Amino acid sequence: MSKPRVVKDYDKVDETVKQQIKLAYPDGFEDHLIKFVNRDGLNVSALPFETEEKYYLVRMTVSQAQAIIEDDDDYDDDGMLRDDVREEYEDNLDEDFDD
User: Fold this and answer.
1) Cα angle at 85 between 52 and 99, to 5 degrees?
2) Given 1, 37, 76, 89, which residue has the most CB atoms within 10 angstroms?
3) What angle separates helix 83-98 from helix 15-24, to the nearest 10 degrees?
4) Is the pTM of this model over 0.90?
5) What is the four-CA torsion angle of 72, 73, 78, 82, rounded to 10 degrees?
6) What is the CA radius of gyration of the chain?
């Protein structure tokens, strides 16, 4: 059985999913964007991300991907996820799976 596909803007994604995305892409998003044609026939770019339940396409342009990382305190000046943040998110996810 295939997973449901969810297409969302980054700012509308649940915080827990954002944490998982940051762990999956600790070096930023822009190099991982894919392009596809949406149901309206428009070319869009998105960050692919898969959980156990869903396959996400998180809509963003290259410039939006860069701005998200630049504005996010979870990333250092080089655009890398900070080690302390990574550890905190990993702990949070471990707690979620223990429930």
Assistant:
1) 40
2) 89
3) 120
4) no
5) -120
6) 14
- What is the rounded CA–CA span in Å between residue 90 and residue 23? 8
Q: In tens digits, what is the pLDDT along the chain, a chain of 99 residues?
A: 689 999 999 999 999 999 999 999 999 999 999 998 988 999 999 999 999 899 999 999 999 999 999 999 999 999 999 999 999 999 988 776 554
| Contacts (Cβ under 8 Å, ≥6 apart) of 71 | none
The CA distance from 22 to 93, in Å, is: 12
Q: How far apart are CA 97 and CA 2, in angstroms?
A: 22
